[in-house]
Design a protein that fits this description.
510 residues, 6-stranded mixed beta barrel, 14 helices, 15% strand
Amino acid sequence: MTPENSPTPTEPAYQPPLRPRGGCVGTVTKLLFFSVLLVALLLPFTPFAGKIKRSLQQLVDSAKATKERIITRDVVKEVPVTKEVIKQVEVIKEVQPPLPDKYIPRKEVDVATLFNGLTVKTNLITEEGSFASLERLDPEAYKAEFQLSIRVPKANQTLPELSRINPNLPKILPGLETMLSSAKVSGFYHKLYQSKTTRVQNDLTRLNKILDRHNYYDCETILELTHPATQRRALLVQSEMDVVADGSDGDRMATLDEYIYMSDYYQPTTSYAWPKVTTTPNPLIARWEERLKKAKEEFAVKGLPAARNRELNALIQELTVQISEMKARSFLIAEKDPFIVISLLFRGYADQNKHTPQIGDYACVIHEGKIYPAICGDYGPSYKMGEASLLMSKTINPKSTPYRRGEDDLKVTYLIFPGTAEKPNKAPDLAKWRERCLQLVGDIGGIGPGIEMHTWEDPFKKPEVPADGAAPAATTPAPAPDAPKAAEEPKKADASPKSSSDDSSKKATK
């Protein structure tokens, strides 16, 4: 479009003015507002004010009455209360002593009593030496010097001294006083305590367990007696009574109580033995063969320590010898036979000392007014004295077991008659043993009035059949004593295991 064709400007068209929306509603609202306001201002001055007030009061009173009719209940509700625990930590600071700035010499003394009754007193002395690299090469730099003080007891020798321990001894052996006038303290007594002392020194030097006080002082005296008229010799030993539970014999006892052969240090053989007379095997052979088999199997294992190999080799040899002996010979049974054990220190002296006891010699045991016949049936350790079979021990003390002594005090008198053993050895004949002991005691003055030699019952005697042929009444065997508690009693009655040298010597005498 060109400028020539554009319209000519004219005045704008007329438009009527805009009217606000809602003008009538606003006017009405204002009128109502002013009307309410006017009524509110004029109402208190009109008669209707009282009526309105009374109506409002009635409404308030009605609401109060309704509230009073509401039933309320108290409900107890437990609300957990958490207590705050305040943990106080006390910090204790250890104050260390000041560090030494130089070597301080020391000399200290310590005294203690060991479980075996031995009083130990140690002196620790230190002194300044050279360099550690040099002192470790010098054996004198670190050493222990032991000084053990022992009072070796003297032997009693007179009748009053013997009667102090056993007041009944003069009454039981009236001829004892006559023999004591020429009695001699035996060299075996001095050898016994010499052996004890040497053993203590050797064990102390090697820091091994040493002989305790009780077993060191286990012998009061050993006297060599000779009756002036009959020249009958006797060896009197005043001691205690330890227990031996050794021995087995298939001929007389085909079964053996496990309580016995499972006890510590049990040996199936005794020094007194004789050839088997039946084909009934020893009850322990099967068990010993099983032990031998296990020992050989372990010994065959490669790489065992040398010490263990030595132990197994010694055990194999010991079991092999014992099995061979059990197959060929019979032995005393400590549970059934009355015998005493003599020390190995007696062995080998018979040619130079006529009072030397030997295996098989007859003996009498005297305890608290009673005298019991027996024989010397086994050898024991060279450092001990006073031991008897389980039967003998239980006879003088029913509470005795393989783990408990028959007599703790030195109240037992062993009267041994050297050179009276009968050859060859035979199975025990208790009646003959009693008769022979009566003869031997008669040779030294006899038994005092009112005293009788004990009579042993045959433990293997078969019950007699009554004349009417009825079966004899059944007897219930006495139950085996209960095993003792380790905390109350020692592992073995003599409280000291036999040394290997003593055991080997014992085997060599059979």
